[in-house]
Amino acid sequence: MKNFKDSYNEILKSIKTSNDNFDNLRVEFFIESLKDWSEKDNLESIRRWFIDQQKDCKMNIEDIPLSDCRGWSFNKNGSFSHDSGEFFYLQGLRVTNSEAREVETGWDQPIVTQVGFNGGILGILRKKFNNIPYYLLEAKAEPGNPDIVQISPTLQATFSNLKQAHGGKKPKMAEFFEFPDKNKSSIIFDQWMSEDGGRLHLKRNKGMLIEVNEDYDLGKLDQSFKWFTLYQIKSLIKENSWVGPHVRSIISHL
After folding, report:
1. Whole-angstrom Cα distance, residue 108 to residue 94?
2. CATH for 4-61+117-251 (3.30.565.10, 3.10.180.10, 3.90.79.40, 1.10.10.10)
3. In the chain, what percentage of residues exceed pLDDT 90?
4. Which residue in 214, 119, 216 sits closest to 162, CA to CA?
């Protein structure tokens, strides 16, 4: 019986492709989605891993008044921002001439504004093992997630975090997206992506898909990281709120 690797390679070779690298990638992305080619983990083991990541998360979230937020304060101009001047701030907007919307006469609302409007990098690493492509994702805890932990990109970090404006650690895997040329990597996707304009003011994020050479050793990964096939990612999107919106945005072009 032929193994997954042989079948995958044979299907790729059997489909006539052009000399255009992008066209070849589109063909490969299609083949990746046909079935689960993984030689690492099946869908059931990935589900168990993710449920364990949720159970093991120690992050505790408590609702508090804005005035109690440490390191944040109201400014003379009426906005609410971080003392470092980084991250984001809460400001007010007045909307007029809104005949096409539900409130034709306009409205006032608070809105979140990213400092500099460019939010951060949302990046996924792609790497082949035995010529089969995998995508490195992280079970990441964020205080606003419905179940705290979601399946997130390899890197999900604001530029303020990358600059370590919070005084904390550098985000893991950041170097692959900040300096892809230094890590034997090639850029498959690199685009500015818009955010929800109803709650985020003029914000955009840089979406990236970076492929690391097959012979590049990433070393031992934290338990929060897992290699997924494209088929597995698309299958888990069917689970309620498991796969975060940034992963969905990045793979939407595949």
Report:
1. 4
2. 3.90.79.40
3. 76
4. 119
CA distances from 122 to 76, 82, 106 (A): 33, 22, 34
pTM: 0.90
| Bridge partner list, 132 | 129
pLDDT at 2 (0 to 100): 52
| Cα–Cα distance, 66 to 85 (Å, whole number) | 17
**pLDDT over threshold 90, residue 237:** yes
Tokens of 2: 């032929």
Mean pLDDT of the chain: 91
Three-state DSSP class for residue 112: strand
Q: What is the DSSP letter of 218?
A: -
Residue 166 · residue 180 · CB < 8 Å: no
Place of tokens 């934290």: 222
Residue appearing with tokens 């995998």: 134
- The candidate with the shortest Cα–Cα distance to 233, out of 224, 242, 225, 220, is 242
Domain limits, CATH 3.90.79.40, in the chain? 4-61+117-251
CA distance 71 to 173: 27
pLDDT band at 8 (very low <50, low <70, confident <90, very high): confident
Task: Using the CB atoms, write b or e for 170-197: b if 16+ within 10 Å.
Answer: ebebbebbbebeebebeebbeeebebee
Q: Which residue intervals of 127-229 are DSSP H helices?
A: 159-162, 174-178
Q: What is the pLDDT of residue 1?
A: 40
Three-state secondary-structure class, residue 156 = strand
pLDDT at 20 over 90: no
Residue 125 CB-half CA count within 13 A? 30
